[in-house]
Amino acid sequence: MAKQLKKGDKVEWDTSQGKTKGTVEKKQTSTTHIKGHKVAATKDDPQYIVKSEKSGKKAAHKPSELKKAS
């Protein structure tokens, strides 16, 4: 589990298709929207915006879902 991530960190997470890798774009601490989906991030419950290596698409993930990739 990755608690403190920063922009540029390589991370991986589980999807229904298996593990996916990507790069942290930023730590989100306020509500935003990605692809029409609401990201309910707060300072007390932040999420990370990550860009997938495979698809190039961005998504928001909770810190508990991300693991630093080696």
Structural description of this entry:
This is DUF2945 domain-containing protein. The chain is mainly beta and 70 residues long. It has a domain at 24-68. It has strands at 10-15, 18-28, 32-34, 37-39, 47-52, 58-61, 67-68. The chain is globular, with a radius of gyration of 11 Å. The two termini are 13 Å apart.
Give the tags:
two-stranded antiparallel sheet, mainly beta, DUF2945 domain-containing protein, 7 strands, 0% helix, Hva1_TUDOR
Q: Uncertain runs with pLDDT below 50, 5 residues or more?
A: none
Mean pLDDT: 92
Q: Walk across the major sheet and give the strand order.
A: 6-5-2-1-7
For the report, how would you describe the main beta sheet? 5 strands, antiparallel
Amino-to-carboxy terminus distance: 13 Å
Helical residue percent band: under 10%
The H-and-E topology, N to C, reads as EEEEEEE
Number of distinct beta strands:
7
The secondary structure category is: mainly beta
Discrete helix count: 0
